[in-house]
Design brief:
four-stranded antiparallel β-sheet
Length: 170
């Protein structure tokens, strides 16, 4: 009798621990893939097969680093690649394409993970259905010119950064 009670508790803990680590593994994998895409954007020129399709090259880097979790239509649905003018003022920050000195941001957004059991998921109070985990990761860095010296960075007196409080570039 004691074994049966302890076994049920241990089984619940083991399944919960497995599901929790699975969600953390997916999030860490996506974060690594986003960082690798940004790293590829700032350090390497794409192969000739991706001439004129820099975003497709970055998505291929993400696909390679996500162990098959993101591929095909999922890449288009969940991956956002944006470029920003690093020295902008006001709302003119977004730009249409990669250029030296701009900032590239790679995001994987709204990827839903449904663990096998309901041990670590909450229920929606309105519908009573289990709520999936939504994973969102992002990485960004400044694109440097090739070849040559990097452009000047902002100083403490004149920073070149995004202010999340106001939504403007400084």
């Amino acid at each position: 009798m004691e074994f049966a009670l302890v076994f049920l508790l241990m089984l619940t803990l083991l399944v919960g621990a497995f599901e929790f680590t699975w969600v953390l593994f997916i999030r860490a994998t996506f974060h690594h893939a986003a960082r690798e895409a940004v790293r590829s954007a700032i350090t390497a020129n794409p192969p000739p097969a991706y001439a004129g399709a820099f975003d497709d090259y970055l998505k291929s880097v993400i696909e390679k680093n996500t162990f098959g979790l993101l591929s095909g239509a999922d890449l288009d649905a969940h991956v956002d690649i944006e470029y920003f003018d690093a020295d902008c003022n006001g709302a003119s920050c977004p730009i249409s394409d990669a250029e030296a000195g701009s900032v590239v941001q790679v995001s994987i957004r709204c990827y839903e993970v449904n663990p096998v059991s309901s041990l670590i998921r909450a229920r929606d109070p309105a519908t009573g259905l289990l709520v999936p985990f939504s994973i969102n990761v992002s990485s960004s860095d400044r694109l440097e010119p090739f070849p040559g010296a990097p452009p000047g960075r902002g100083t403490l007196a004149n920073p070149t950064a995004y202010n999340p409080a106001t939504g403007d570039c400084l």
